[in-house]
Each structure stands twice: as structure tokens, then as C-alpha cells.
Amino acid sequence: MDSVTHIVLGACIGEAIAGKQLGKKAMLLGAIAQSIPDIDFVASFWMNTTNDLLAHRGFTHSILCTLLLTPLLAYLSQRYSKTSSLLFPKWMLFWGLQITIHIFIDAFNAYGTGWFEPFSHYRVSFNSVYVADPLFSIWPAIACVALLVLNKLDIRRKKWAMMGMVLSSAYLVAGIFNKLLVEKDVKVSLSKQHITYSSYFTTPTPLNNLLWFVVAESDSGYYTGYRAVLDSKPIMQWRYVRRNEALFASIPDRSEARIDLENLKRFAQGYYTAEKRHDTLVFNNLRFGETAGWASTEPHFAFYYYLQYPDANKLIVQRGRFAGWDQQVVRSLFTRIKGN
Fold it and tell me: Among 81-85, 155-159, 211-215, which is the least confidently predicted range?
């Protein structure tokens, strides 16, 4: 999830756990606690782009790191907090719950979260919430504003905090429910259209969980398409994209570009293509969807990497998310959400 979401959600959780003992300080500590796993952003200062991709949401988002940090932070809090009446078990709950919720909700979007680092590089990704979804974030944000306004002794504070947490949690559940509905329809469509595939995935399109991007893997490429929860027709329209693995053969072994390529393949978890754009070879990661693919017949993938020009990839995750968006694209998104 984005940083703002973690901050407001952490503030609500902090209020719910320790508001009575710490007052509004609980909100500040909660926002800090909820943001701790994202300390891995400092790695970008000395790592190249592909190594940074693997480091982010890696060890600092692992179960092991949570187990190590929680008692340490609880001990430091109890020792150096001179005004708090919180005992060590309550501090354990405070820090442990905040960090656990952070790494848990991060697993709901496409990036993937390294829960099992350093023992396994497997990335947990439920692909059921877009990384920045206002309908998930708005509830704890509203609650956070209310908590800032209300007096620290107001009896309504805990109700506001619980409202922010409960409604955002309900949205997570709704996303999973919608994903299951869409995947059921996807399987029916693939079967009716006699499309042979080895695996598939679905991920929500930007800012909603009603329209989903779908990728079905075949021997030499992928079928991509869109499915809305409100679609009534069983048949989907598919676009076939070749993997073009042979294009990577031109990259020298043991070169920096080859190392970058192997990192990118690991990050893509098997869903990638190669293409030539002008004078450079481009690596596409399909897990992040397409740039307004519901409104274009030949869209680019949102995540792409210039293999011959590594310095041109500093904003690799962000640059394609909303590239080319205008009023027409936004209108077409809402039209497509309404169903075919």
C-alpha cells in the first residue's frame, strides 16, 4: 500500500490500542510503527534499480523481521517512555500488530511481499487491491481527521478508530470476493473459447476492484484481457502477446544487462515479455497490468525496463501507472466498469 494509507491506518490502530494511556501520542507512534517496514527505501541510495526492486518489501517485510523487531521496540518503549503506564505485553501488542498489519495488507497488491525472507525468495501476492485505492484508504483517513479534531478525552475516539479499521477491512474482503467472481468467469471464458493455458492471474485495474486485468499463459506467450464484475457476457476479448524469449539471447553472459535481466525475471514471477523499441530491448513485467489497456487496442505494459539503458529506469514502478491518462481514459474506465 502507499505510505499515506499506512500512516492513517497506523494512527487509527494506535488510538484503538493505546489511546487511553498515551492520548494523541498513540496516533503519532502508530503512524511511525505502521511505516517501519518501509525503511527499506534507503536501499535505493546505493543499490541499482533491479536489486532495489528485490530488496523492497523483502526482509523488512518478513515474518522473521517482525519477530525480531517487536520485542526490541517494546523493550525500548517501556524503558524510555517516562509518562506511559503501558506494560511490556501491551507494547508488544502495539508494535507487533502494527508491523504485522503492514506486511499483511502489502501482500494484497501486485508487488509481492517477502514474508519468508531470508529462507525463501517467494513473494506473497494476493493481487486483490490496487496499490493506491482511494476506496480502501478513505475510511482510515476520515477517522484520522476526526481523531485529530476530537479532544483526547472524548469517548467517541475509539469508535472513530474502529470505524476506520472495520470499513477498510471490509473493502479488503470485498476485493477478494470480487476476485473470486472474476476468476470463475475467466475460467468459463477460456474453456468456451478453447484457449489452452498453463496458468493465469487476475489483478485489479487502477483505483477500483470492479474491473480486472487478466493474463493467461500459453506455451510461447500470453492472452491478456479485461473482466468486470458486472460483465454479463461469458465470452471475453483477448489480445495475444508473444513472450519473445529469443530476443534476450543478444545480451552477453555475465554482463550487467544479463544480471539485470535475471533479477527482472525473478521479480516478474514468470510473467514477462521482450520487445524492441527503437534502438533498445525492453523487458515487460505483466503483473502490473497495462497502461489504460481497456481504452486502447495496442497498449504498453505499465512496468517496462530498458535493458541497454539502465539509468533510464529510475521510476520504473511509477512511470507507467497513469501514463497517458486524460478525461477520455477516465470516462472509458468508468464505462468499462459498468460491464459489457
Answer: 81-85
Please report, for residues 60, 100, 115, the alpha-carbon distance to residue 68 in angstroms, rounded to integers and kept in the order given.
10, 12, 13
Nearest alpha-carbon partner for 103 in 9, 220, 177: 9
C-alpha cell at 240: 495475444
Extents of the domains making up the chain = 3-175, 193-340
Please report, as a single letter, which amino acid is at residue 302. A
Spatial separation of the C-alpha atoms in residues 35 and 291, rounded to whole Å: 29
Does the reported pTM lie above 0.90? Answer: yes
Q: Is the pLDDT of residue 83 over 70?
A: no
Sign (positive or negative) of CA dihedral 171, 134, 131, 96: negative
pLDDT of residue 39: 94
What is the mean pLDDT of the segment spanning 295-309? 92
List the alpha helices (DSSP H) in the chain: 3-22, 25-35, 49-55, 63-80, 88-106, 134-149, 157-192, 256-268, 327-337
In angstroms, the CA 87 to CA 84 distance is 8
Cα 80 to Cα 99: distance, rounded to the nearest angstrom: 20
Residue 301 grid cell:
505494459
Gyration radius of the chain over CA positions? 22
Instruction: Provide the mean pLDDT of the chain.
Output: 94
CA separation for the pair 134, 207 (Å, rounded): 6
Q: Is 212 exposed, middle or buried (0-12, 13-18, 19+ CB in 10 A)?
A: buried
